[in-house]
Amino acid sequence: MHQEDDRLYNTNMTFSSERSRPPHLRHLRYADVAPGRAYHAALIAVDGARARGFQVSDHTHDFYELMGILAGEAAHVVNGASAPLRAGDLILLTPGDWHSVRFLPGRLLHYVNIALPAVLWEGFRSLTGTATTLGSVPVARALSAPSASECAAAFHRALEGFEAGAEVSGLEACRLLAAVVPCLLAPERGGIPDDGFLRDAPPWLIRACRRLRQDPDLLRSGLPGFVAAAGVTPTHLARVLKAAARQTPTQYVNALRLDRAARLLTTTTLPVLDVAGECGFEQPSYFYRRFRAHFGTTPQAYRSAAGRRIAPEDSQDAIASRAPARTE
Predict the structure, then answer these.
(1) Does some domain include residue 323?
(2) Residue 38 belongs to what domain range?
(3) Nearest-CA neighbor of 287 among 273, 300, 270, 268?
(4) Which of 150, 165, 184 corresponds to the end of one domain?
(5) Most exposed among 81, 138, 178, 309, judged by the fewest C-beta atoms under 10 Å?
(6) Cα separation, 158 vs 39, whole angstroms
(7) Which one, of 256, 257, 270, lies nearest residue 300 by Cα?
(8) CATH number at residue 163
(9) Between the CA of residue 40 and those of 67, 125, 293, what are the distances in Å?
(10) What pLDDT is recorded for position 3?
(11) How many domains does the chain have?
(12) Distance (Å, rounded) from C-alpha 76 to C-alpha 83?
């Protein structure tokens, strides 16, 4: 599973016209697919010689389905919309979606297919707070090489767990979802533009933005590093980024730097000035000004508030009121 960058190539493949739903559509029920099991897992391997005329025909189901593409390519039709399947792709299908896989002559396709009962998926979404970020539409994401490798390992563990028997499959289902769901979610929050703006961006901009997010040294270098990673002129970068994200390169870099500063403030004990330097802000006054404009508070207050959220502080009066009375 090898791709250069995460890119969400279709977040909503739902096709609006029910007239296009194939007649005599097969409907699969989880109770028939994996009775008594927490999930169902299968490895589907179609080699090039067998691909001619071979396909997974149109069908729908009452369960959630994960597909991890390990190697090869094929065509995937979901709710009437066609999209390619390539090594490194991660697919989530929801109950009621209808889809098919068309194998290409002479091309192989190896993928892991996981069926999850709706009650397990919905319970996991509720527990992890992803009910609003992962809705009721199918999702397809092309993963970067590191993410694809992690997901491939998770899928293989799920296969082994399923083969081991029902007594461990529930635990394996949770391990699988914990590894895969973060790859399905939009990776940026807190004022950083969602990666959806990159869907129609040129590959060079996608790669440059990814490198900025993933390489602290490059992010510290600021605008010159962004331009170097993009491999285009500063003017061209500014024009294309403005059209895609409605931000200038400087605004984009600062937003990423401030997001990283907020993470360092809440996950390390680095002094505030060291946090500023670590994120590429050479002038403390500029860092304080940009941080307050972005988060509405000072860096120190932001750190203190984060600490109180997980370790609330009581006033001395409140502590004294709960102290046991002294007896003579």
Answers:
(1) no
(2) 7-184
(3) 273
(4) 184
(5) 309
(6) 9
(7) 270
(8) 2.60.120.280
(9) 12, 19, 49
(10) 37
(11) 2
(12) 5
